[in-house]
Amino acid sequence: MKSIHPIRLLAAAATLAAGAALAHGGAEHGAHHKFDASKVEETAFGREGDPAKVTRTIRIAMNDAMRFTPGEVAIKRGQTVRFVVHNEGKVLHEMVLGTPKELEEHAALMKKFPEMEHSDPNMTHVKPGASGQIVWQFTKAGE
């Protein structure tokens, strides 16, 4: 029996001002990312997933109220998931996967350096009306 990995989709950027949310350079990070198995790094919450091994697609909507719908999903450990994230808002938004501690650190860093551009396999930045995606393999139990 595989353990379930509950994911609470909290708007880590919710503490950022709208102006800071716009300061990601307007790029849709992750949109043109190529998977390279030799560069995959294990993290406390899994690893970048191979798009050819996706076993489930989860559609997520994000909005200007800094909320995700659905707000929580359950994923089996070992599952490779494609998150298709659609920005229903009027400003740039991001979705970042991480441990609660890492998400807090990321939010604090973005507050301190709102103009910082960043792109990692565990995040996507999405322009208003557009969609982005993250492919992730959940190799460890967690929240």
How is this structure best described in words?
There is one protein chain. By secondary structure, the chain is mainly β. Helices cover 12% and strands 31% of the residues. The strands form three sheets. Strands 2-9-6-3-4 form a five-stranded mixed β-sheet, with no helix packed on it. A two-stranded antiparallel ribbon has the order 1-5. The longest helix is centred in the last third of the chain and has 13 residues, at 100-112. It is globular and about 35 Å long. The two termini are 18 Å apart. Residues 10-31 have low confidence and may be disordered.
Overall shape: globular
Rg for CA atoms:
14 Å
Number of helices: 2
Q: What's the rounded overall pLDDT mean?
A: 80
Strands side by side in the biggest sheet: 2-9-6-3-4
Strand content: 25-35%
What's the order of the H and E elements? EHEEEEEEHEE
Parts with pLDDT < 50 across at least 5 consecutive residues:
10-31
